[in-house]
Design a protein that fits this description.
6-stranded antiparallel barrel, 6 strands, alpha+beta
Length: 129
């Protein structure tokens, strides 16, 4: 369980824990940096607000980790509910030193993506790793 009470895949919870200790892990040298590199694929996006963009939705919020290029599936977690989002892309990546980003969620209405919801890679929920 995440601090907000949301159930998340264990790999993403570990990645989040590692990212909170970035300075310490970097100080360990090659091994610590390797752990941080492994954690980047376990991205996490917290929705702050959404707006309609044609038949899609632009979701603004904070991105931890690195969402690769291309179209991806994600799990959206909010309280005790989980919804699968079959297609999303990174519209605008975070600027250097920021976590603020924008995702395009394909064929979804803004009302389906409430503020405070957290997105995780669907691969993690499917236990692909």
């Amino acid at each position: 369980m995440a601090p907000d009470g949301t159930a998340v895949p264990v790999c993403c919870a570990i990645a989040h824990h590692l990212r909170t200790r970035t300075d310490f892990l970097v100080g360990l040298g090659k091994r610590g940096k390797s752990l941080l590199a492994d954690a980047t694929v376990h991205w996490r996006f917290e929705i702050r607000e959404c707006v309609a963009d044609s038949s899609d939705t632009a979701a603004f919020g904070t991105l931890a980790g690195c969402l690769p290029d291309g179209v991806h599936a994600a799990e959206m977690h909010l309280a005790d509910a989980m919804t699968v989002l079959s297609e999303l892309t990174l519209e605008y990546p975070p600027a250097e030193g920021s976590l603020e980003a924008c995702l395009r969620v394909i064929a979804r209405h803004p009302g389906e993506l409430p503020p405070g919801a957290v997105l995780f890679p669907a691969e993690c929920g499917d236990r692909v790793h």
